[in-house]
Amino acid sequence: MNLSEMRATIRRDLHDEDTVNYRWTDDELDRHISHAVKDFSEAIPLEQKAVKATTAGSRTLDISDISDRIMVEAVEYPVDLFPAHFQRFSIWGNVLTLLGDLPDGSNTFVYYGKLHTLDVSGSTIPIIYSDLIVTGAAGYAAVEWALYAINRVNVGGKTTPEELLNWGRDKLTHFRSELKRLGRKNRVRVHSFFRPYHEIVSRSTDYGPG
């Protein structure tokens, strides 16, 4: 679903299809769509892999050119081994520091998640989640308009903005609940890319008196 199709679907949900008297401009809806896409990306980022050259004898990598980065999942070094060899790492700003093997100047693979795109030419968001983006964007649009209109004269009656506000909040509640359920922070991992920097402490083993 591209941006134009997304916008049209949201207008249907908002009952805003009178082309000569839109309640929301295209720019306003695009801003709410962008908000929903950013929220979605934080929960389910677009998975990418970047090839980065190391500097011999240095553990640091400049990752400032990895644009729209949400998170870094793993760093493979040395590359092209089987099984793959993943490094422990830390990140401060745009500097990634390898905590394992000292690089020799060869390449690393950086596995990361980035912001999804949604524009007139298409989208990186899987089609099964299109309705979820619609829900979030419609919710943001409804809440913004209702909060603006609730203390103003409204030809639809005094309760119209309040009803729209409640509708929008319900949409956002569902949207955020689904993001929490689907999101990367709530997934149960059945594998690990790399050994964690801090050793896992058992919460069930009793080693007795020290």
Task: Write structural notes for this entry.
- Mean pLDDT is 87; it is low at 188-192 and 194-210.
- The chain has 210 residues and is of the alpha+beta class.
- The chain has 2 domains: 3-43 and 117-186; 46-114.
- It is elongated, with a radius of gyration of 23 Å.
- It has a 4-stranded antiparallel sheet with strand order 1-7-3-4, with no helix packed on it. A 3-stranded antiparallel sheet has the order 2-6-5, with no helix packed on it. The chain has a two-stranded antiparallel sheet with strand order 8-9.
- The chain has 4 helices and 9 strands.
- The chain has helices at residues 3-14, 26-43, 130-149, 160-182; strands at residues 46-53, 60-62, 69-76, 86-87, 89-92, 95-98, 107-114, 118-119, 122-123.
- Helix 1 crosses helix 2 and helix 2 crosses helix 3.
Which characteristics define this entry?
210 residues; alpha+beta; 2 domains; four-stranded antiparallel sheet; three-stranded antiparallel sheet; 4 helices; 35% helix; 20% strand; disordered C terminus
Largest sheet: 4 strands, antiparallel
SSE topology string: HHEEEEEEEEEHH
The overall number of domains is 2
Structural class: alpha+beta
| Cα gyration radius (Å) | 23 Å
> Spatial order of the strands in the main sheet?
1-7-3-4
